[in-house]
Amino acid sequence: AGAGGGGGPPSDESVRLGSLAATVYQMLAELHQGDRARSQSLVIVVDEFDQFVHPSKQTLLYALFDLAQAGRTPVAVVGLSCRVDVLRHLEKRVLSRFSQRKLHLNHVLSFPEFTGVFRNICILDPAAFPDAAFAERWNAALDSALAQPEVQSLLQSIYDLSRDVRQLYTLALAALTRLTPAKPFLTAHILFDVYQSQTTDGKVLLLLGVSVLEICLILAMHLCLRDLEVESCNFEQVYDRYRQFAVDPQNKSVDVFGRAVAFKAFEHLMDLAVVRPAADTASRSNLSFRPMRLLVEEEQLLEVLQKYAQLPTFVRQWGLQAVG
């Protein structure tokens, strides 16, 4: 306290800030003694950079950035932070001396680590959970579900496509909403059903809305490509294959459509981007003989055959044989 009295001993915070300021100025004084001709380059790494962006702590950053910008001493300052919004908290005087060079680095998880993240999301701590016995049973059921091949497959799919941990949280939350008092534990069946509901293929949804004739044309085209071992075929080949199936005496549930009607359906498949010309061209002349590609995978066809409720049994059987 000063001579005027009335004050107590300095607080720990003021002492700490005073010590920080003294350290900064001492360090700057040492650095300013050098020059580019005699000094060696110095790289200063500020770990946990976000801890220094509070208003009371930006003196250090200002001093370091000002030193690096002045150019009298060969100094580079590197800040490390796990927060992407850290620069928003810098004062204008500090931000004006920042070089705006940013490098975003992502930690790449291995698949076992990725699976471990999902387990950590769902696991219960018996010591902290009110019912320790239930927590142990829950964890045992969780480990059993994670060991199932179908669960490993769906986690592998998420890992291969995005490696986004947020999808694991979405999967876990949706799976937890499926639990009931009668079925209080996570199972492989619940996880797989939730995953299926979250990852429905857009093309499968599209094909579930087309006509039976268009499904037949897709199956006929798939058979043409498979049997001829080619990557493209034309409408005439597809229609001939469809007609062979449709006029089968055993087939009493599928109408035999003429070439003109079938061609309109084929054009609709083109508009839906289910089939497309093998060679890019703006003209639609002679479409009947133009080589076309099928943009549907076997797995998608199989899912459509399984989910298309109004599909005649004879068509479904023909399709399963074609895909198989």
What does this structure look like?
The chain has 14 helices and 4 strands. The protein is mainly alpha-helical and 324 residues long. β1 (42-46), α2 (58-70) and β2 form a beta-alpha-beta unit. The protein is elongated and about 100 Å long. The protein starts with 11 loop residues before the first helix and ends with a helix. Mean pLDDT is 84; it is low at 1-11.
The computed structural class is mainly alpha
Average residue-wise pLDDT: 84
Uncertain ranges:
1-11
Instruction: Report the C-alpha radius of gyration, rounded.
Output: 34 Å
Question: What order do the helices and strands follow?
Answer: HEHEHHHHHHHHHHEEHH
Indicate the percent of residues in helices: 40-55%
Shape: elongated
Distance between the termini: 90 Å
- Count of extended strands: 4
The proportion of residues in beta strands is under 5%
Lay out the secondary structure:
Elements: H1 12-32, E1 42-46, H2 58-70, E2 75-79, H3 92-95, H4 111-122, H5 132-146, H6 149-161, H7 165-176, H8 188-198, H9 202-207, H10 212-228, H11 235-246, H12 259-271, E3 275-277, E4 292-294, H13 298-307, H14 313-323
Helix pairs in contact: 1-2, 4-7, 7-8, 10-11, 10-14, 13-14
Quick gist of this model?
The chain has 324 residues and is mainly alpha-helical. It is 52% helix and 5% strand.
